[in-house]
Amino acid sequence: MTRKTISILGATGSVGSSTLDLVERNPDRFEVVALTAAKNVVSLADAALRTGAKLAVIGDPALLPELNDRLAGSTCRAATGSDALAEAASGEAELVMAAIVGCAGLEPVMAAIEAGRTVALANKESLVTAGELMTTAAETHGATILPVDSEHNAIFQCLAGNHASDISRLVLTASGGPFRSLSRDQMAGASPDQAVAHPNWSMGAKISVDSATMMNKGLELIEAHHLFGLPSGRLDVLIHPQSVIHSMVEFVDGSVLAQLGTPDMRIPIAYALAWPERMETPAEKLDLARIGNLNFEQPDLTRFPALDVARQAMEAGAAAPVVLNAANEVAVAAFLEGRIGFLAIVDTVKEALARMDLPKPQSIADVIDIDRRTRALANDLMSEMAA
Ligand SMILES: NC(=O)c1ccc[n+]([C@@H]2O[C@H](COP(=O)([O-])OP(=O)(O)OC[C@H]3O[C@@H](n4cnc5c(N)ncnc54)[C@H](OP(=O)(O)O)[C@@H]3O)[C@@H](O)[C@H]2O)c1
After folding, report:
1. DSSP assignment, residue 277?
2. How close is the Cα of 135 to the center of ligand 1, in Å?
3. Tens-digit pLDDT profile for residues 298-314
4. Range 165-263+299-386: architecture per CATH
5. How far is Cα 308 from Cα 327, in angstroms, rounded to an integer?
6. Is there a contact between 195 and 335 (Cβ–Cβ < 8 Å)?
7. Does residue 362 contact residue 136 with C-beta atoms inside 8 Å?
8. pLDDT digits 0-9 by tens, 46-77
9. Which of 227, 186, 334 is nearest to 219 (CA)?
């Protein structure tokens, strides 16, 4: 078997580490070309040495000397800066795992797409903020986008062998997060530790808080809209606390296909890594008899307004999804640092959307500019609210 060459952007994060785990268990299938991180120089260097990567890129330039020291005597080149990140994304690897968190992922994802690579896309911000730009570029450059987010990966799996024109609706399942049964009053006093304690999934802090507000599901609606080309009215959200069904596709004939599995990100990651084949994973196998019951309920938009706010941003289009995403990132960071309360996250996003009325971004540079302006506004709004 010829080995698939792979670069992992964001190799030290939650998705990045799970990807490395799978790649390192299958040295006969994968050859690592490049790895990147922002600051975690120790893990980056260790992974580069273990996998025999040719390039290791660290985001923080002050850490380049340490990376060089740690890689001394190996054949791995240490680098920093946006050109090096673009090289990791668009270099010789056939498959690029895009697992950087936030808008920092946009430029490298676009570089991989413009180089016509297969992109395993975990960085949901790419589709949320620049969905049309990314999908159009993928068509132009013959790139393939494989969704890694478990819901979109589930839908992608259900669509195999089917025609997109036969879809009647997509149903994104949501666990409801750690605050599924809490009142708004109870949520008001929630701490960062409580918000990141997701009942089913082990994930990075930012996305865990997004699950608690349900903004994550709102971002995923926008992601699904761009990946599968369906309008808001044909995208539904269903609360399913066990996180066993990862999403469903309803077809015009009334058939519903679902993808099931234990909540372990290594399953959707493995699907993207091995696609169009499959590979073994160490994930626990699903035992439905032990689980017993699968439950479903409608989302409560009064207790979780983020879902509606995100849907409205999707329907408004133009710059609204960029504003939604940027204001949310800033507010989640402030919440994690203890600067604002839990309910103020979505209040900040709503207010930012009300105040920012900008034209549709025409390029990634436009998206990054709107993102930067929104961050400044969101910080001002949080100071106003605190005063
Ligand atoms: N975690 C999940 O289960 C999950 C599920 C579905 C989708 N996603 C999506 O996947 C993406 C990654 O999530 P995650 O949970 O893996 O995040 P994470 O654990 O926070 O890891 C983020 C990765 O990106 C790197 N990074 C952060 N800021 C950067 C910057 N400015 N420039 C370059 N690299 C940067 C980090 O490096 P350092 O370690 O050096 O900081 C780390 O390698 C997100 O878009 C998330 O929404 C995640």
Report:
1. S
2. 21
3. 999 999 999 999 999 99
4. Orthogonal Bundle (1.10)
5. 16
6. yes
7. no
8. 999 999 999 999 999 999 999 999 999 999 99
9. 227
Q: Which residues are annotated as a binding site for 1-deoxy-D-xylulose 5-phosphate?
A: 124, 150-151, 175, 198, 211, 216-217, 220
What residue spans in the chain does CATH classification 1.10.1740.10 cover? 165-263+299-386
What is the C-alpha separation between 132 and 212, in angstroms, rounded?
A: 28
Bridge partner list, 142:
none
For residue 276, is the peptide bond before it cis, meaning its omega torsion is within 30 degrees of 0? yes
119-151 pLDDT, tens per residue?
999 999 999 999 999 999 999 999 999 999 999
Domain spanning 4-147, CATH class: alpha beta
Q: Is the pLDDT reported for residue 198 higher than 90?
A: no
Reference 325, options 156, 138, 124; nearest CA is: 124
Handedness of CA 232, 238, 242, 247 (dihedral sign): negative
Kindly list the distances between the CA atom of residue 206 and the CA atoms of 141, 146, 196, 336, in Å, as whole numbers in the listed order: 32, 22, 8, 8
Q: Could you tell me if 66 and 87 are in contact, meaning their C-beta atoms sit under 8 angstroms apart?
A: no
Cβ 26 vs Cβ 281: under 8 Å:
no
250 C-alpha to ligand 1 centroid (Å): 31
Stretch(es) of the chain classified as CATH 3.40.50.720: 4-147
Give the annotated binding-site residues: 12-15, 38-40, 123-125, 149-151, 175, 198, 204, 211, 216-217, 220
Q: Using CA atoms, how far apart are residues 343 and 185, in angstroms rounded to an integer?
A: 9
Q: What was the pLDDT predicted at 224?
A: 98
